[in-house]
Design brief:
about 270 residues; 2 domains; alpha+beta; 434 Repressor (Amino-terminal Domain); Lipocalin
Length: about 270
Amino acid sequence: MNEDFARNLRLLCSYYKSIAEVCRRLDINRPQFNRYLSGRYRPGDGTLRRLCDFFGVEVHEIMLPSAQFERLVSVRPRPLHAPEAQTAEARHLIHLKEIGSTGLDRFLGSYFETYLSMACPGKILRTLVTLERQDDGVVYQRTERLIEHPSEKAYHGVYRGVVHLLTDRIFLNDYETLTGLEITQTILFPSFKNRVSRLTGLKLGVSGSGERMPCCARVVYEFLGPHIDVRKALRLCGLYDMDDARIDSATRQAIRNDMAPGEWHFRARY
């Protein structure tokens, strides 16, 4: 029985690039797998079911006489590749998506994100953020529009990430798509009103200047709507002076990075 099983297992492995790839995707020890291939050992019931699930066959099928099994496999759809085994990182992300996607639909749409620039101290930075649902999760794009010199065209930095709603807090995690050298996290207070207008919170990231200093800043999200003219919105994004009248006084007050007497931690403001 083990000899037929071993031949059948070797046949299934032949549809892959190497035995090493099969072991990697199954997350199984190579010497242990070699014992199965040699016919000296038969895997336990749990391991056997995992092997069959991976290759897309039934337990009773993989135990068939090898000639019969080969005919069976020859008429099955090819290739017999199973999905990549989930990495530890993927399992955590899937779990977060499962527990943190409910309740976000009311926050979908576009926002002006405003905070004190980390790369240009003393300046206010406004970016455009758009949250949308894809499949069973919520993702977003954050676009920076910067003009380094009046005679030059605007530069657009694009960040993409995922959104989770966990215990009445909205968590946004993104990465910079051009170089992949920066990850940013933002935590917002959700709006408990019927109509979403403004969200406030804290933003943690790395300064885009040469020193690349980790920084934390208060941030305001101003809801623009579910459908907007993106070009017009982007033209209103960029760097502003602290006293620029185009930034309303409530927003300027909400993004001030000061600490009140008796505060031991840098905290978000409602």
